[in-house]
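Standup notes
- DV: blocked on the single-chain target, sequence here:
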Amino acid sequence: MANKRPPKSGSGKRPPSLEQIILQIFTNNPSTAYGYKAIHSKVGRRGYDGEEVVAAVNRLWEKKFIDKQKGNRFQLKGAVVTDSKPQRNSRSNPNTSRKLIEGVVDMTASGAAYIVSEQSDRDVYIAASKLKGAYDGDRVKIRVGTRSGSRRLEGEVVEIVSRSKTVFTGIIKVAPKFALFIPDTNIPLNLFLPLSKINGAKDGDKVLVRVIEWSEDGKKPVAEVAEVLGRPGENNAEMVSILANKGFPLKFSADVLAEADKLPDSISPEEIAQRRIFKGVPTFTIDPIDAKDFDDALSVQKLPNGNWEIGVHIADVTHYVPLESALDREGFKRATSVYLVDRVLPMFPEKLSNLVCSLRPNEDKLCFSAVFEMNDNAQVLKKWFGRTLIHSTRRFHYAEAQEVLDTGQGDMVDELKLLDKLAKTLRAKRMEAGSIDFGSDEVKFVLDDTGKPIEVMAKEMLDTNRLIEDFMLLANRSVAEFINTRPENIPFVNRTHSAPDIEKLVEFKKLAAEFGYELKLDTPEQISASLNAMLTDVKGKPEQHMLESLAIRSMAKAAYTVHNIGHYGLGFQHYTHFTSPIRRYPDCMVHRILWQYLTDPTRVNRDVDTLKHRCEHSSLMERKAMEAERESVKYKQVEYLSERIGQEYEGVISGIAHFGFWVELDQNKCEGLVRISTVIDDTYMFQETQHAFVGFNTGKRYQLGGRVHVRIVSTDLLARTIDFELA
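- DV (later): unblocked, structure below
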């Protein structure tokens, strides 16, 4: 055995051991599995022989830093296996099976993608080099196979069936003969812009471009500048870019606006005569302080028998928006309003959303209502659904209504106290039945007149927020139960949430146990009960953010579906969205189905395929809206911290990856990255399954949920990144 060793550095710092060198190779390539020979080829030049490498690798395996795969190959512990040997083509691998399927591209941050297809029970991995110009959301045909010795499905794109997106945002660079386009997001497209198609854009402008001609391979399409958004870093340009890049139209077309302008400002006596009248009944709205579209109101009155009549009144949008009208087509296309930090992009034009349909105080308004007779124990004795006319006499914002509850003084104090009591009883029953309370902190910004953030804080969840939430849940659940239990078997828009992935829960259980929390996973009831207990106990503790985040990640995403599988997170067998038709298109679909059934069950639309398509589209646009909201929050956080370089804060480790860990600041909930390369007191090894970095010599740990003291090093407003260092 040779005894060659790397020479000591002149700095006096101890050189890394062979084990550290090898472990760093695995850390830098977490998804790659190496054999002994591959490792030796990487470290042999340092003077180590094969026996030393084998011994060092085996020691790392015994210490559980790496996992052992088939064929004496090793990989960083907890990582996803890929082959270190490149696959040249299918002919070089006789064990590869191939077939053609169609599906939708779901791109990852790395540029690779997964294909989601009804023709496969597993998602198919597509390397970036095999996408053939396909982009996120595109429908494609792919050739699918499995590598020899691997269960993972892999493939390559053979045809782009349809494009999900033809407009992109980014920065234009004007050259003498053509223009270059630098997109805001990583897209596998090299857009060509002739100078005749830049429409007055200047070098460095933030622009919206539209593809006007696709090349055969899809990689070099021709584009034109559709709109100049402004200069990079300008608030309006960046906010508009976020919306446009997610595919939301920035303006309403002329025909949509014209149709909205024709909406009546008054209600005809004939229409009033067809409705149940709630004028004179104590009625009010509770919304955010800056809200303009009020789509729900509550009424309360005591009945002669001593029970309570609680009305959940929802803006009757579909009365004003006929099916397949220009407004309806636009609502479906957008599917949702988008709420950014400094603006709202509404689903419908302002005349409808903020004026005609909005349940403004001291105005008669048309509603679609769910009315409940309840006793003092919040037991629902009777339900009624139908079209109504209301007259709200008070508009509260949440803090204002909370002050009435807290002080026992103010407008509608008795009504608010009663509804608060009933809501808390409904909530307790819901939690007892298996509903999971995923309450997480939201960020609130105080902006100046230019949109610049001057303060960032956590948004407080008040009793009045929960009061509205509980009665909306009651209405949504009741409508779904009513339709889904009809003997006619009516096609319906369900809001569903599947049971969690048990494998993810098992991993989460192990991590929670390290902090002293016990999860029981034997039955769905045990899962929800123990999760709720943990989520309650963890409040205010350092590990709160970590465990809440990981618990949510172990759950499936809610979606709109025609097949009712129940809503696991809420613990409801039946659930839908009925209460926000001004800002959600699925609610409009639910209103139409419910009204059709109430008036004539024989004329209920039974076109399941169309309903399914509309559900899928609505789910997709909902996800895009949430992404846009998160991006706007991140932008404002970066903008806020850009003027605070060098300041120090306390925070909690909120995320972790092989290159570093993210820290969420206590004071303002802003999140930034500490790169592990900047932590120089030891060599730190990434332990993915433990969500931690562990010091090789000291054993010091930086783990999810751990508290750290950090300093702001740098920010990049265009990239929306924040860099910290340990202080």
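- Follow-up: The radius of gyration is 29 Å.
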